């Protein structure tokens, strides 16, 4: 274990240490990468378990609050009729469902975590739980400052930085009897659904246990398979970078070194994920930069006929020689 973690440290901090990896078998790199993914996945599982434990009291408090709040959300006078894929109401529109007391602070906190600067400039803000306006369009969604907007033909909600439009016609076919929602029906549905909230803590604990005992092994296996395919493509870019630097590696040499050169990208990606940082293509950028440093650690003109090359089974540089014919 000490040698394994030393290798992780060297792969992240010492490009020259990659020289001693030339000549090692494919399976050395394969199993190194597998155990690296086991460790990172296990650490992620521990983090999830700790978070679940820390927030369990808040989750239980939220469940208790939901049981008290949800049954009273639906107004007594409101009747919604869904017929032929269109929504009809009996109230003056727009009809607003305000955020329940105590939900507003949680909604604001969620927005501060999820929204980027572009969202704030667009004025996307949630002040209402739901708004019904059968004359509205999807383009007007930001103007209503609501979590959900019900129009004549669709329900519109925000998912991260995109809008999701759910057409009523997708789940109500033509010719089907109208669906009527009123306070009585809502109360019956809520009464049957709310008891299932009590299972949420047990489900979270179950996921945490599975994540600790099972996920690292199977997750790492699938992860290695994915990286094998990843290296097939991006080793070509690494090979081009090395060639520009005057190092003539074989494709097989760079592919094998790639098992280890993935280490900084995996570690950095894992850390940035839990810090909610990073950007697209960061993983590949870190990998290619690492491969550039690795190639630079080898002698200039490495791989040329008259330059030293590391041969399989030894860590010393020897001059390549043509095999004499017999």
Protein architecture, described:
It is a single chain. This protein has 326 residues and is of the alpha+beta class. It has helices at residues 2-13, 26-69, 103-114, 117-122, 141-144, 183-193, 200-213, 215-244, 251-274, 282-297; strands at 80-83, 86-89, 95-98, 128-132, 146-150, 154-159, 162-167, 179-181, 308-310, 317-319. The strands form three sheets. A five-stranded mixed sheet has the order 3-4-5-6-7. The longest helix is centred in the N-terminal third of the chain and has 44 residues, at 26-69. It starts with a helix and ends in a 7-residue tail after the last strand.
Sum up the structure in keywords:
326 residues; alpha+beta; five-stranded mixed sheet
Number of helices: 10
- Over all CA atoms, what is the radius of gyration? 29 Å
Distance between the termini: 47 Å
The secondary-structure class comes to: alpha+beta
Give the rounded overall mean pLDDT: 84
Query: How many beta strands in the DSSP annotation?
Result: 10
Helical content class: 40-55%
Give the spatial strand order of the biggest sheet: 3-4-5-6-7
Characterize the overall form: elongated
Described by strand count, sense and barrel closure, the largest sheet is: 5 strands, mixed
Low-confidence stretches: 116-123, 311-326
Order of helices and strands: HHEEEHHEHEEEEHHHHHEE
Instruction: Tell me what portion of residues adopts beta-strand conformation.
Output: 5-15%
What topology emerges from the helices and strands here?
Elements: H1 2-13, H2 26-69, E1 80-83, E2 86-89, E3 95-98, H3 103-114, H4 117-122, E4 128-132, H5 141-144, E5 146-150, E6 154-159, E7 162-167, E8 179-181, H6 183-193, H7 200-213, H8 215-244, H9 251-274, H10 282-297, E9 308-310, E10 317-319
Parallel strand pairs: 4-5
Antiparallel strand pairs: 1-2, 1-8, 3-4, 5-6, 6-7, 9-10
Helix pairs in contact: 2-7, 2-8, 2-9, 8-9, 8-10, 9-10
